[in-house]
Amino acid sequence: MPDSTATTPTPVPPQPHFPSYYQRPSTAPRIARSVPTPDGAKIAAFFYAESQVKEADATPVLFLHGNGEEHGIFGPQIDAVVAQGRSAIGVDSRAQGKSTRGTARLTYELMAEDALGVLDALGVDRAHVVGFSDGAIEGLLLARDHPERVASLLSMGANLTPEGVLAEDDWDMEGTARQCEAWAAWLDSAPADVDTTIVTPSATEARTTAQLMRLMLEEPHISAESLSAISCPVTVMVGEFDCIDPAETQRIFDAIPDARRVVVPEADHVLPKCAPEAVTSELLALIARAERA
What is the Cα–Cα distance from 96 to 208, expressed in whole angstroms? Predict the structure, then answer.
């Protein structure tokens, strides 16, 4: 007979998503607000500026982060923009940072619309856009579909298809998604001695991470040809050892009229962390180029 005392093995707890160190902005935001969306999500929006900056003084800069992160990954760039007397807008993408999940299916198009909602809530008609990884995909969609709202685009580590990301030996995204789902299922029926309210990650957090993994596995699906509609100045930036397929970066660069391509030597995918000075330099140069034009 089977042993009635046997228990289901507990799964391995998932590790935090992108836990490595980065430098957050050195100044406090002047505005920190949750912007509601039609499907019930609340998007955390942060407005950084010097006290004397007026809303109409200069076109603000909108920062869109990568998968599993929050807007503070752009700390050095936000500081540099504010030091120029310009305002910076940080957005925590839905289900990440301080933003909530909502009920709509996760897509890059949805998160691009969330960013527009933040601009609307802050009364900003047009912004320079900085996007990294998932945020760069959102930036491409914004520049293509809402050209009147985008003054320039710094796109770092974007891909057009799931296949545009090279497989990494040390990161099994599908395995991570399954691990998170198994952990959430275990917490749903955890032993009586396990207080699930103090366990990290919670079942909700684990399921959200699984959804974020599957977002990268299943999307985006952007036609390179469609990017020819982008009319603002664009810099396409990648690391020398980026996980983005160089052919994918080439397709993006070739499709956007008059784009500038920058490959950062000895850098990997996470340029805001591993090459913050290069990112800041390219951002300020792009803003200057856009405003001269």
Answer: 9
Q: What does the domain layout of the chain look like in residue ranges?
A: 31-162+221-292, 173-212
| pLDDT digits (tens), the chain, 293 positions | 444 444 557 798 998 777 788 999 999 999 999 999 999 999 999 999 987 665 456 899 999 999 999 999 999 999 999 999 999 999 999 999 999 999 999 999 999 999 999 999 999 999 999 999 999 999 999 999 999 999 999 999 999 999 999 987 677 899 999 999 999 999 999 999 999 999 999 999 999 999 999 999 999 999 999 999 999 999 999 999 999 999 999 999 999 999 999 999 999 999 999 999 999 999 999 999 999 98
Fold annotation for 31-162+221-292 = Rossmann fold (3.40.50)
Neighbours of 164 (CB within 10 A): 20
Q: Report the alpha-carbon distance of residue 146 to residue 5 in Å, rounded.
A: 61
Structure tokens at 29: 């935001």
- Report pTM: 0.94
